[in-house]
């Protein structure tokens, strides 16, 4: 099974969408194997968004992501990276498909409620930034036979 990293950003936490967002992933059949609320440090934020360093929006992005707690999670399931990305919708909520998380809860491209890994390499890197191995659970989801053939 594949794993991915998902984060409810500060605007999603502050606006009270954490439970609604987690519920969507659970209802889709994805298994939560790691979950925590944390205040991201400047150092962690700079590592997480390292590919944007030097871009004009980098400082604002770091200020925003460290401004309030986030909820970080690791999801597991068949093709979960593309599945989660599809559920999130386009980065710009105004361009996100109806019913996606960003279309439903997002308002602005800079306040789009959620982040998710875009590839297996990104997922592995982001999971390792936010979670230690002992924080990730290995268990059988009892409804798995009702989700997968």
Automatic annotation (TrEMBL):
GO terms under biological process: CTP biosynthetic process; GTP biosynthetic process; UTP biosynthetic process
PROSITE patterns: NDPK_LIKE
Nucleoside diphosphate kinase-like domain ranges (all copies): 1-138
Pfam hit, one: NDK
GO CC annotation: cytoplasm
EC number: 2.7.4.6
Compartments reported by the entry: Cytoplasm
Family: Belongs to the NDK family.
Protein name, UniProt field: Nucleoside diphosphate kinase
Protein encoded by which gene: folNDK
């Amino acid at each position: 099974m594949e794993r991915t990293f998902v984060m409810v950003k500060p605007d999603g936490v502050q606006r009270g969408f954490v439970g609604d967002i987690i519920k969507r992933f659970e209802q889709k059949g994805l298994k939560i194997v790691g979950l925590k609320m944390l205040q991201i440090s400047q150092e962690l934020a700079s590592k997480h968004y390292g590919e944007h360093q030097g871009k004009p929006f980098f400082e604002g992005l770091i200020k925003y992501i460290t401004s309030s707690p986030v909820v970080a999670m690791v999801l597991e399931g068949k093709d979960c990276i593309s599945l989660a990305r599809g559920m999130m919708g386009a980065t710009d909520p105004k361009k996100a498909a109806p019913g996606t998380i960003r279309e439903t809860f997002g308002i602005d491209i800079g306040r789009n409620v959620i982040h998710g890994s875009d590839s297996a390499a990104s997922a592995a890197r982001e999971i390792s930034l936010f979670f230690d191995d002992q924080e990730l659970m290995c268990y059988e989801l009892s409804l798995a036979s009702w989700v997968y053939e």
